[in-house]
Amino acid sequence: MTANDIIQLLDAAPFVPFRIHLTNGQTYDVPHRDFVWIERNRLLIAKPSPKSDRSMERVDFVSLLHVESVAPLERAA
Question: Which of 2, 6, 63, 77 has the fewest CB neighbours in a 10 Å radius?
Fold first, then answer.
């Protein structure tokens, strides 16, 4: 997965929430384009606070080399 692949997902109109799958089995849900920032070789992925949609609990740094796949998130019925 490349930075351009992630940029295309983030720039999609309309935006479709997605899940990032890493080579170690870990996943990150991206419910909004503002939750991911792209650097040259890594992603900064925000984990929202359970207390507020407008604040972050933490930010994780993920190497693009470890992004195995990306899949759309299923919407709740």
Answer: 77
In this prediction, residues 2-23 reach a mean pLDDT of 96
Please tell me the pTM assigned to this model. Answer: 0.86
Which overall architecture, per CATH, does domain 3-72 show? Roll (2.30)
Phi, psi values for residue 23, rounded to 5°: -65, -20
For 43, the token pair is 């992603």
Q: How confident is the model at residue 68 (pLDDT cuts 50, 70, 90)?
A: very high
pLDDT in the model for residue 49:
82
DSSP type of residue 2: -
